[in-house]
Design brief:
Blueprint lengths: L1 H24 L4 H27 L3 H26 L5 H10 L2 H11 L5 E9 L6 E5 L10 H12 L4 E5 L10 H18 L3 E4 L6 H8 L5 E2 L3 E7 L2 E7 L2 E2 L2 E2 L1 H10 L7 E5 L16 E4 L23 H4 L2 E5 L2 E5 L20 E9 L2
Length: 367
């Protein structure tokens, strides 16, 4: 469908530009030309998006993809056509055409630069009863079809911070249907390289990977997939309990509630960490708390508007929390990773205002 979306953007841009040139030559008023061009652009975008949905089903990512490419490809194309063939061009329209060219660097940045501009999101959390600091590494939402230099560099960067524990809160891969057996060994090698450096590695599944797939990927590596269960370990003089809960479709399995209830029991001694794909798992705590919730899923919204934040987060938690980082949610310290990868499939491969990240969370003793 990528070629279809590109073609749609070119057709909409060409039609908008050609219509504007026709109206300019006919002496139509500036305001009517602008209104007409907007109508052609919006109408064409909606038409191509509707046709795409006939093939993909109700996929909002496809609609976003069409709109995005019309903005960064079709809009400047229309502007170029008007400037080339619409002479003499009214000053207002000339200005609008020149402004449309700013979509080009925005598109290049959002598609080819920011999605690979990995950052380190460091946070410190004071936890009662810790005898020695614990460093947690978080790497979420690789959400890739194969392992390349970018993914390997993300692992190298995480290892360089010498975490005591590494957590994968889901969406390790987004391998296309029928290619899992061929691509899975790449992910196994990635996990193994991480375990060789940081022996304590835990994973839960997300929306694009299953528990069974994670078991296959991690088999023999030493990493542990937590499937609605609690792992207890002693780390640097601290007892640490990590409950990992699994997704079943769009929600959590009934067994997830049992694991969360056990973890949130105040009689359980030690540090209590809940690992889940979505921050929305907070609902399973039902008013109880744990020392830390680690999640991903939102990608920080993947696109954020300056001074507003991400308009879409695919989460019911408050937008500023879904945007990423360490916050407090209903009394529970909650860390949401902006993720390493980005949504694939029919979605536009973009990030804007939400850089990918690996997380480093230092748990320290309360003073």
């Amino acid at each position: 469908m990528n070629y279809y979306v590109i073609a749609a953007a070119v057709v909409v841009g060409t039609a908008t530009g050609a219509a504007s040139v026709y109206w300019i030559h006919r002496g139509v008023g500036t305001g009517w030309i602008v209104l007409g061009a907007a109508s052609v652009g919006v109408g064409g975008t909606m038409a191509f998006a509707a046709v795409a949905l006939l093939f993909t089903g109700l996929d909002h990512f496809m609609v976003v993809h069409v709109v995005y490419l019309v903005c960064v490809v079709g809009l400047p194309l229309a502007g170029a056509i008007v400037l080339a063939f619409g002479r003499p061009c009214p000053l207002v329209i000339t200005t609008l055409c020149l402004v449309s060219f700013t979509a080009i660097p925005v598109g290049v940045y959002a598609t080819h630069i920011e999605p690979f501009w990995l950052r380190v999101d460091a946070a410190t959390l004071a936890v009662e009863g810790i005898s020695e600091d614990i460093r947690i590494g978080v790497i979420a939402d690789l959400q890739t079809t194969s392992i390349g230099n970018y993914e390997n560099e993300a692992i190298d960067r995480l290892i360089s911070f010498a975490p005591d524990i590494v957590m994968f809160p889901g969406d390790l891969h987004q391998i296309e249907a029928g290619q899992f057996e061929e691509r899975a060994p790449q992910f196994t090698q990635l996990v193994q390289r991480l375990v060789d450096a940081v022996p304590v590695v835990y994973l839960v599944n997300g929306h694009s990977d299953t528990v069974a797939e994670l078991h296959q990927i991690t088999h023999g590596t030493g990493a542990q997939v937590l499937d609605n269960e609690i792992a207890t370990l002693e780390l640097k003089g601290n007892v640490v309990h990590i409950a990992g809960v699994s997704l079943l479709g769009r929600d959590y399995e009934p067994a997830a509630q049992l694991a969360v209830d056990r973890l949130s029991n105040d009689d359980l001694p030690g540090v209590r960490i809940l690992l889940a794909h979505e921050p929305d798992v907070i609902k399973l705590l039902e008013g109880s708390t744990v020392d830390l919730l680690v999640s991903g899923h939102t990608h920080g919204g993947q696109v954020a508007i300056p001074f507003f934040g991400p308009p879409i987060t695919a989460s019911s938690v408050p937008r500023h929390i879904a945007a990423g980082g360490l916050h407090e949610l209903h009394g529970t310290p909650t860390y949401v990773s902006t993720g390493v990868g980005r949504e694939r499939g029919n979605a536009p491969q973009v990030r804007f205002g939400v850089r990918p990240s690996i997380g480093i969370i230092d748990l320290v003793a309360e003073k």
